[in-house]
Amino acid sequence: MYPIPNQVFDHYNAGELQTLMGLFAEINHAWVVIDNSLFLWDYTHPDPELIGFEDQPHTIHAVALVPPKPGIFVDTITHILAVATSSEMILLGVSTADTTAGTKSVALYQTKMNLPLRGADVRVISGSAGGRIFFGGSSDMDINELYYQSEEKWFSNRCGKINHTNPGWSSVVSLQSSFWSQRAPEHLVDIVIDDSRKLVYTLSSKSTIRTYHMEAPERLNKVIEKEKVHCLRDIAHMINQSKLLNDRISIVSISPISKQEASKLHLMALTDTGCRLFFSATSASSYLYGSQSNMAPQSMQVQFIKFPPSQNPRRSGHFASSGQSGGERSIRAGILPRLCEQRRQRKHRHPLRLWARVGADKTDLAHHAPAVL
């Protein structure tokens, strides 16, 4: 168990608006946002140095560590830190190096690459292995891409935005839809990327999963839209009625499954009742024997269900598959149990527990920290 450094609590006690917290496991660093300040530290070090970014006045809403585009930065820049504030998105260069003590040293560099947001409330950022940066907010369903280049050109700045949902009319469409709509607005909750298949998945506040295919640079095409009612329809063919899987549930997170982990499974979705839904996405070429085509998928179905542990230990941890009916049965062999074990081992490769003790008059800092990774 690694405690949070005391310096973080000193800054937290002086905070006024909000606190966010998370991990950058690829560089062995934890991060915390307190109002307009971002701090990082090596969580494996007993007395870590606190690295801060406090050079801008606006509240920080989201951060993400993403790979850099090749050929843009010097070789010492190993990652890009994307910081979304209430006013703009800022790109910071991140340099990492191994120390003699076996830890990682991290340095942050200004890139002078900023993107004005013009009122957009960015809450989700995700980056692909090729350096593409996608983001969205709490006000609409638009999936945007931040592009950057080494120098300004005649008709483009160093930083810019591409709206892949409503290209060319994003501001007009977003304003009209929010002004005239009588329904509760739908917004992005999460964006995840499967680089092995060049797929981007988004989760909305209405539990709708959308699949996009990454094509040649700066192109992103929506290929599948899977609403919650369609997921429940798939589930109805697999199991009897269950109070854990009904029309009142919500999907709270999604995780991509790479081609190396499972060739027939693409995505895992977690419901607020603790059920894990495993999806497969298929295209026309999927039905051809021996086909290795990288065509974009055209449909998505629930293939397996993993239920949460039961109070009755004899029935805990069971699976249901699309090849079963009439109940919640166990799969004794096959791809799904092996996949779950692989993901469990990978998840616990670097155990970490973050804890905090704060006053009752402020938001619990530990609420934002993962319990175990």
TrEMBL record:
One of its GO terms (biological process) is protein localization to nuclear inner membrane. Keywords: Nucleus, Transport. One of its GO terms (cellular component) is nuclear pore inner ring. Residues 2-322 form the Nucleoporin Nup133/Nup155-like N-terminal domain. It is found in: Nucleus. GO terms for molecular function: structural constituent of nuclear pore. It comes from the Eukaryota. PANTHER family: NUCLEAR PORE COMPLEX PROTEIN NUP155. This is Nucleoporin.
